[in-house]
Design goal:
It is a single chain. A seven-stranded parallel β-sheet has the order 3-2-1-4-5-6-10, with helices on both faces. Strands 7-9-11 form a three-stranded mixed β-sheet. A two-stranded parallel sheet has the order 8-12. The chain has a single domain, classed as NAD(P)-binding Rossmann-like Domain (Rossmann fold, 3-Layer(aba) Sandwich), CATH 3.40.50. The chain is of the alpha/beta class. Helix 1 links the parallel strand 1 and strand 2. It contains twelve helices and twelve strands. The protein binds nicotinamide-adenine-dinucleotide and thymidine-5'-diphosphate (TYD). Nicotinamide-adenine-dinucleotide (NAD) binds next to helix 1, helix 4, strand 5 and strand 7.
Length: about 350
Amino acid sequence: MNTFSKKIMITGGAGFIGSHLVRLFVNNYPAYLVVNLDALTYAGNLENLRDVEGRVNYVFEKGDILDEARIGELFGKYQFDAVIHLAAESHVDRSIKDPLAFVRTNVLGTVTLLNACRQYWGKDMKGKLFYHVSTDEVYGSLGETGFFTEETAYDPRSPYSASKASSDHFVMAYHHTYGLPVVMSNCSNNYGSHHFPEKLIPLMINNIKNNKSLPVYGKGENVRDWLFVEDHARAIDTIFHKGNIGDKYNVGGFNEWKNIDLVHLLCRIMDKKLGRPEGSSAKLITYVTDRPGHDLRYAIDATKLNRELGWKPSLQFEEGLEKTVDWYLQNEEWVRHVTSGDYQHYYADQYAKR
Ligand code: NAD
Ligand code: TYD
């Protein structure tokens, strides 16, 4: 194990963004050992990482970030140099139904990890790093104009964003109080392959394919700023290697879409791909009761990340969306498996047998 130049724990690596990040690190940094710690909740699935399974610089460890003893055991076993923390409850609608689950995982789970870093890294924290992956939703809701910058005051308005905001504050508090080397990024909405089909884009793709109604909340006027997930993974890579300790960076696509326009665009792409008459998928659009406290608009100003570290998005939205649609159409099995949960346990069992 000491042959690796860095040993990195990535939490939540079996989820949507985490699996893209694990793949990027395992492929691009053979000198790093990547340890994926994931509890495999409904949102985590090892099928997302079949292509890196068995690689010498990759290990999966099942575990809950709330489980202090398990985290301690892993710190002892691997002597981590860095933690990149993505494990979270991530769906706003679920947070409205069960806020405490979000407090547990997102707040207590993060603090449990911070404590482990303090304890195992001791006083000499040189060369160590805790990277916290967060969201633009902590900034609240914008009106028709303006952008979130790194200086925008936090104003979370859903239980999900309140739990992420709280975790962000703890990360910065551990930096200021205990000198823990941290860095943080707040990203806009991601889209791409391996996205659990409860979120807007994969849900709509799946429903269009199956001729099911397309539930648009309220009037569909809410605006989100969409970023291709592989661009987010590249941003995390850049910030991990070049970001200033104690700093935070906004990550976004400069790509704002009203939900209803986005759903229409998806319908047009899907009509073409499925050989359906133009306009047929749009007939499935159904306006439904709005989400309580639904934030009107998110828009990220990612200038700092571009200016200081040279990152920018690589894909035009239409191109990324077509790629995403193609992936879902070619991976119908994956959708079946993640929604049934069967394979989640199959893969976990395979690991347990090793
Ligand atoms: P996801 O829901 O797809 O994946 C979360 C992963 O965390 C899953 O693999 C799950 O099994 C794991 N997990 C959950 N609770 C755990 C626990 N207690 N212990 C260990 N593992 C646990 O989420 P995602 O969309 O990939 O988001 C990853 C991170 O990025 C989150 O912190 C989220 O707040 C942040 N983020 C997401 C977006 C987005 O658009 N999806 C945008 C900005 C920031
Ligand atoms: P979502 O993917 O849940 O991400 P977030 O709430 O974190 O931005 O939702 C994206 C937008 O789409 C949000 O404005 C809510 C809306 N939405 C719908 O209109 N219908 C749906 O079925 C879902 C899941 C979301």
